[in-house]
Amino acid sequence: MSKSTNLKVRLPVLVLVLEVVILALYAVFVTYDDNTNAKLQNNETDPMQNSLYRDYPYFADVQVMIFIGFGCLLAFFRFYGFSGMVFNFLTATFTIQWAILIQGFFQFYHDGKIYLGVINLLNAEFACAVVLISFGAVLGKTGPVQLLVMALLEIPVFSLTEWAVLKYIRINDAGGTILIHMFACYFGLGVTFVLYRPSLNNGHPKETTSYHSDILSVMGTLFLWVFWPSFNSALTFKGDDQHRAILHTFIGLSSSTITAFALSAVFHKRGKLTMADIQNVTLAGGVTVGASVDMMISPVAAYALGVMGCTACFFGYKYLTPFLAQRMRIQDQCGIHNLHGLTGLISSIAGICAILLASEETYGPSLYQIFSHRAPPEGDPKLLELQELIPGLKPGLGRTAQEQALYQVAAVFATIAASTVGGLLTGLVMKLPFMAAPSDEDCFDDELFFNTPPDFESVDALKNLISLEEKEKTSSVNTKV
Amino acid sequence: MSKSTNLKVRLPVLVLVLEVVILALYAVFVTYDDNTNAKLQNNETDPMQNSLYRDYPYFADVQVMIFIGFGCLLAFFRFYGFSGMVFNFLTATFTIQWAILIQGFFQFYHDGKIYLGVINLLNAEFACAVVLISFGAVLGKTGPVQLLVMALLEIPVFSLTEWAVLKYIRINDAGGTILIHMFACYFGLGVTFVLYRPSLNNGHPKETTSYHSDILSVMGTLFLWVFWPSFNSALTFKGDDQHRAILHTFIGLSSSTITAFALSAVFHKRGKLTMADIQNVTLAGGVTVGASVDMMISPVAAYALGVMGCTACFFGYKYLTPFLAQRMRIQDQCGIHNLHGLTGLISSIAGICAILLASEETYGPSLYQIFSHRAPPEGDPKLLELQELIPGLKPGLGRTAQEQALYQVAAVFATIAASTVGGLLTGLVMKLPFMAAPSDEDCFDDELFFNTPPDFESVDALKNLISLEEKEKTSSVNTKV
Amino acid sequence: MSKSTNLKVRLPVLVLVLEVVILALYAVFVTYDDNTNAKLQNNETDPMQNSLYRDYPYFADVQVMIFIGFGCLLAFFRFYGFSGMVFNFLTATFTIQWAILIQGFFQFYHDGKIYLGVINLLNAEFACAVVLISFGAVLGKTGPVQLLVMALLEIPVFSLTEWAVLKYIRINDAGGTILIHMFACYFGLGVTFVLYRPSLNNGHPKETTSYHSDILSVMGTLFLWVFWPSFNSALTFKGDDQHRAILHTFIGLSSSTITAFALSAVFHKRGKLTMADIQNVTLAGGVTVGASVDMMISPVAAYALGVMGCTACFFGYKYLTPFLAQRMRIQDQCGIHNLHGLTGLISSIAGICAILLASEETYGPSLYQIFSHRAPPEGDPKLLELQELIPGLKPGLGRTAQEQALYQVAAVFATIAASTVGGLLTGLVMKLPFMAAPSDEDCFDDELFFNTPPDFESVDALKNLISLEEKEKTSSVNTKV
User: Fold this and answer.
1) Which segments constitute the Ammonium transporter AmtB-like domain (chains A, B, C) (predicted)?
2) Into how many domains does chain A fold?
3) Which ipTM did the prediction report?
């Protein structure tokens, strides 16, 4: 069994193959876009108007979330901190370079080339967030080869779904609630369903946190919390739309956070705070405002959404996660269904309400910019009228609010279906024998894949100190299923 | 006694009540401002001119300081890392949503509504910094209910003081030395005076740091250090004023830092460096340049202010903090009087000197923009003349430099008075029996309010190792009083 | 011996002298530049056009790299975390204030004054990066007095070299590969050659990492990784040049990172991942793309450079570092020769190839902006023609691509020569008896210069647990020589 998890050949061969493929595809297909091609600059180009200055600040903020926020957050296990942080680093790095290509074919491809600028990287980061959220479902129970394979397969399924939903169903989803959070969630649940390990339902001795790993994980939460407004607003329209997206995200996170503290205390038998709640449930508001984040929902609605999302997320951790594990064979390690699925559902419903309530009275003519599919179609005289009020308004599909709402519903179901099927199939591939999956007893242990430092032994020795009494204390750690 | 610190009912009830109040007030009063309201955008609106792009970068930097900088810095106690970081998170999150409302009524209220944009959030963050600084005085000796109550009461007192000083006394205080640092300091000292715990004057066995908590705390210092220029310049005029604010803050911090190292070594009996000095005293320069941060004080003056502020802060920790604790019943846990009070005093004096020395020779006509109260009043022919040189110059009060200097002095005294009284009264409320204040022996211990991980027990066991010899070693930790 | 490392007098006296010198020089020479001088603003000044808004975002990103990225990365030793992080803080802070002066005399001096704005700080940060890289060669074996002296001497040598190369040889080196990375590397090697400690070639019992220090160090890597695109692009032309620099850096780092994982696994005898590789080798791509980072090299070339640089760096750690230590008396503690020297060499060659291949066909007229020395000289009619296409194009030297390539080669050799000689001489000064150098047995130990917390004793006690078996495990730690 120890032979089958050895990375000495598997990982390098996989990486080498991937690199050769990526190199070849970059060589043939990837070139500079209008903002990065020196030849296209002329005496009318104002360098400060380069798209870089609109995109890079948000790209950098999301980078911090991906590499440092997720990295620290996923390092919450006591004996699995190296793996949590470092596999996140590996998976994220591979995913972005892969998504540049695959998304590139779907979104930035014409005349035989993928055109590259920071905007592609920003889009690829969102694809990367999808993979990292799915990763949360199988944290501790998968090796690096499996994770690379998951990324390899998830990105095409995601890019196809994203492209199909945006091109054919055409939805409003500025914060990526449906396409990012819900897709990632159900894909991850599909994977973990296939990778079900019955013996882990009884808990695992190493499935625990330490004082330092809990603090590290809170730091990850704080980085995610601080930069979430950038995440939710990175791909909105510039101007007041982006401004509202930032406001709403901040307000939703704030109300979500204090709610999480209250719930954590009231449902602990001695009224104490549980770190897992603070690490995860506080963030629910960021997802919950997503689908309507750029709309005129009013600040108080963002506040209420934060409270609702947080509450759903909390009870999900408390009741749904154990139920899924024990009855449905779905072991959702980090509880992504609570933080991304339940909140995503609430967010989608809120988005639909916001769409149904949207009127020219509230939005003025920019209604047709935000809800671009409601804009009159090409040739409609109302379009010309609106274009005078909003220069550059693009023709839409002339949808009514009700029609748009139905398309949103369709998108939710389509996304759930595509991601679940994709996740199940990907899980089957990840289960193949040469994927270096850890054995049940080697789960949650850095020793398996890392050359650990001398003190890891002594840390390890402390495991013997975990008495029954202390085991009981860990019962509220979010990873206990 | 253990019953009285249980959060199971108290914290959720308080949070619930606060949320209902905030929801109601947001619903009735809070709406979008001109930069976030879709309806107000028209064909003359350039989205890239939205105020978001001027305010958000500074907002994000201050967010990092508040949540990560303060969070890590306050996690310096060995057995109180969860509490330091997490109570900071809770307090900050609540404070900002509360300050949006209260400051909103004072500063952004007209026609029955509070108008909301990122600029309100930025102002609320400064109010939040005030509460977190005050928190430093009582760190380790207060529970989350007390902290929320402190924030609940401090914000109105602060907002009222800020409004009254800016509206009636009208001062120059770009870096917030008087209104933020000095207010926060004397409010915190007022609170801690009321919460005096005589038994803690003899030290507490858990009032100590660990190797990891010290490193974590230095990381907090570094985040504060790096983003302090954004803090000091966030609310200055744009252009050269903000540019100078950033320069001066950086220079002041730099000279302050190397001074702190020198003083730390020279006053340790074996010439060693003390981490508490590096965590705190290095930052003194950032406060000391505050009151004159946007003025033409010259780079060398910023350098000298950093050295002076650092020196005062260092000796404050060494002599004044123990004196205050033992003779004045003021237990200033993190030494906020040194880092914010003494430096604030120096900064105020420096600001007054800079005001007295300011002349048109140095500043040109923009003298009347920076020192806006010296601008000629409405109707003065000189105003029209100046408005040709500086379009958009607002009419002022026609004050002389001497008059302005006197107003600055008045503002310092008014702020100290208001904050001290406010702090004393708030302390009385926080002392009420149902506030879940920790008992003396439960201070500085995460166990009281947190569900700690299994290894906290073994960490705890190490407490028995703290011999007399080791106690002596902690004598220079800043928390020893 | 213990007397000779006492900082009580030495450090304060040195800092005091430096501060007096700096204060005097700032007072006499440093004034505000056009963007920070209030007097130069008039009714045609648009505050939002102030250079601050172009420079500050990159300055802030590099600040995070310098203080937090380097700080955490250098804290990777188990018993030397305080020193790694805190000496980095001290050295960086001093270096920047010193570089503002010294670089100021070379680059920003006219009419008897150094003109100061954030752009000077940004340049000084690059000088600071040079010193911190060199510091990596002697980490653990030098005290703070030595480090300050190193910075004191390295900055003038660096500034002179930088000035001479840019003014007389005139090269393309947007990412600072030659002037920053290679200079820093060979200077550091020069210093460590002089400070050779034969006894450390057999390893040192404290030259080891811990579980927590390894994680902290990865966090440092992640901060460097995330903000490296800002570092490599901070001083390029604005617009498409900067945009390409960001793209290439990101792509180079990405391919470098996955390559590092593959190499780490394949060369470990049991196929495990080594943290030292993840902390260092992953970053190689950032240096390797440096010299051609703003050119039209195509995305695939950036990808390939990342792979090549990473490979060279990895084998450097594996074979070259031990060879240098045992045969050449060059103990390169952090392996800077691998991460900055070998990659710098590859980058320089790639830069030369890119220069030789650059044509108007690919770049259009902006060829003469990026390769500014190839622009026609003053008076050439072709210059006027080009200036119509690119307003503001400066006259160049009319060099051919081949000529420019030769100058690049000259610059590489000149930089290596100057830095090596400078490093050797600086090493001699640092070896003087009153420099408080730690004895061999006190290396890698915080105890020597820090007032450590009580649990450091117990951490220390764990040292006895380091058995032979565990020693073997550390054999792949990058610090083992």
Assistant:
1) 47-434
2) 1
3) 0.94
